[in-house]
Design goal:
Length: 179
């Protein structure tokens, strides 16, 4: 992976766990456990309940500005050399819609399980650019996910108080589709 100037992402970065995978929650207080869930749009066959499509340690439906200080610190901890006046790029309105769309694409493709890890370069105006896929269980899913992340809007990164170019990483661990 080629790092961007002054800051690069760690390979195991921002994680959203899809479907039935479990995660360790991050909270403001070490003793408090929180899990944020986005439900699937439709019920599974034979069930009145909607399944969890996405679970995360931070709320996925909030903008970066709406995250708590502890949640922002968690997001920032996934980047190297992130200073106190620096901010990473972040999807406008939060990443929930990106994950939801990628999950739907995965369901259409019928891929069973694996990890998708990609990064989209966000310019100093918040516009997405080059998408690099570092790990993927399926080439069709890689292409689909790259199109999804490239059409969303982002808050640009802030480097020393000035908007700058930086990658926004996405890592999704897919568990087996329920039968």
């Amino acid at each position: 992976m080629t790092p961007l100037p002054t800051m690069s992402i760690k390979k195991y970065s921002f994680i959203a766990t899809l479907l039935l995978a479990s995660v360790t929650a991050y909270a403001d207080e070490p003793t408090k456990t929180e899990k944020y869930v986005v439900k699937e749009d439709t019920n599974r066959t034979g069930s009145m309940l909607k399944s969890d499509a996405i679970s995360s340690t931070i709320p996925l439906d909030k903008s970066y500005e709406d995250l708590t200080a502890a949640q922002k610190d968690y997001v920032k901890s996934k980047y190297e050399k992130m200073g106190p006046n620096d901010e990473p790029p972040y999807p406008v309105g939060g990443p929930a819609q990106i994950y939801r769309e990628i999950s739907k694409g995965r369901n259409k493709i019928g891929m069973s399980s694996g990890t998708l890890f990609l990064a989209v370069e966000i310019d100093d105006k918040g516009e997405p650019g080059k998408v690099e896929v570092y790990e993927s269980p399926d080439i069709d899913l890689s292409k689909f996910a790259a199109k999804i992340v490239a059409r969303h809007k982002y808050k640009p990164a802030i480097c020393n108080g000035v908007p700058c170019k930086m990658q926004y990483p996405i890592e999704i661990r897919f568990s087996a589709l329920p039968t």
